[in-house]
Amino acid sequence: MKKDNVGIAFFFVVIAFVLTMSILMSIFLGINRYMLEKKSNIPMYVFCLPTADRASVEALANKLEQKNGVIKVTIIDKQQAFKEMVNKFSIDKSLFDKNPFPYSIELFFQPGYTNIKHFKEFRKNLSKNSIVSDIRYPEKILLDTQQVFSKMLVLSEVLFFILYAVEFVVFISIITVLYSHKKHDFNTLKFLGIRRLKILSMFLKRTLLPALSASAASVILIIAIYFLYDKYANIYYINKELFKSSLKMTFALNVVVGLIFTLFASFFVFLVNDEKV
Amino acid sequence: MVEFIEVVKTFGKNRVLDGVNFRIASNTINQIVGDQSTGKSTILKMIYGAVKPDSGYIRVFDSNVSDLSYSGVVLLRRYIGIIFEDIRLIKDLTVKENISVVTKMTKRNLYISEDIFDRLSIGYLLDKYPEELSLSEQSLVNIARGIVFNFPLVLADEPLRYLSLQYKQRVIELFKFLNKEKGITFLITSQSVLDEEFNIVDVNLNEKR
Question: Considering the domain B2-196, what is its CATH architecture?
Fold first, then answer.
């Protein structure tokens, strides 16, 4: 078989698709995970009654640790809190005849649970506890973070939808050129008694072969990118491990998407262009 | 073997065939003679189902081509050798592959008359690609592809157009040989009479166009 220049062009289009989409998606996922981590850093404070003793506070802390979405529970000792306040504000300790601080518990939640709805529900349930006097969290910060995160998510979804749509159109265009390039030969084969199904399989071979070769070539390129990124590059705010793990996932996804796009675009182009001559 | 009854074909406002009637018997060599653009190729294309008539009846072997489904037309083509006017070799296949594509893709184990390669002196071209061949060599391969499998009917659309006088004569002799020895029926189009022994088919072509 002679070399097919349109097939070669399609090979490079598929490589460009897999790499561009994988790297872009990895960067977005990296940023997404970074924001999730930040979101997860918003605490909730549970203030206990002044009469609550250490043992009951520890029992409550253990109970909270078992709750869904809780990732970290820290008991803030009342003596420690008093000492820190005195030191921080340089207050004369003798002004206080007793420690005004109660025991308190600092809670952190998984990103999915760090939202106003869950925090309110959590507060509602916990406020029924006999040793809890108050529950507080930075509502404004939580709301802002939640909104920024949601907007970012929508933006990235829209962006990727547009990118995938554009890529699909590019696939259809180049596969149409590939078909047009062979249309005369395909018609000749039909005149020689070859069925359209056989011609479809020949056409699919012509489109899937470059797509599969491009996927294999992308594996080599992606390994090189891993190596170079690990050794020389670093994108601010994107942890190397996060980038590498998300790249693996998005790379596999985009190889599969590339093959599915090729298959669908090939069928579409064949159905639209092939004639019963 | 082939029969046209009151066949009409119009392209746009041009009535190319206006009630064409003819019949071709088996084991004969037949020739349609006419100027360019008078509908000779259209007649051949109608026989192998690439062009449908507006009206009329076309019988090939024992089938009415117009009544056949597309699958039926494709099956019919498997018993007709076609020598195309525009050569139509597949450019990314070698000469050998171009010839064997007919059997390979239809999974038929047809007998190949390899002596035809010698008769047309194209044996040395078998591993070459069409673009490496001259127009006359391509034309010889096109002829070989149409006759090498001994199909009962061969349609040849101006097969000698790109050949030298010497080769024209060799091809005509080959057609006569295949007709005599293997009973192959030929329907050939050309702009002038190729051989006095060939039957001239009176198809009343529209010469005014």
Answer: 3-Layer(aba) Sandwich (3.40)
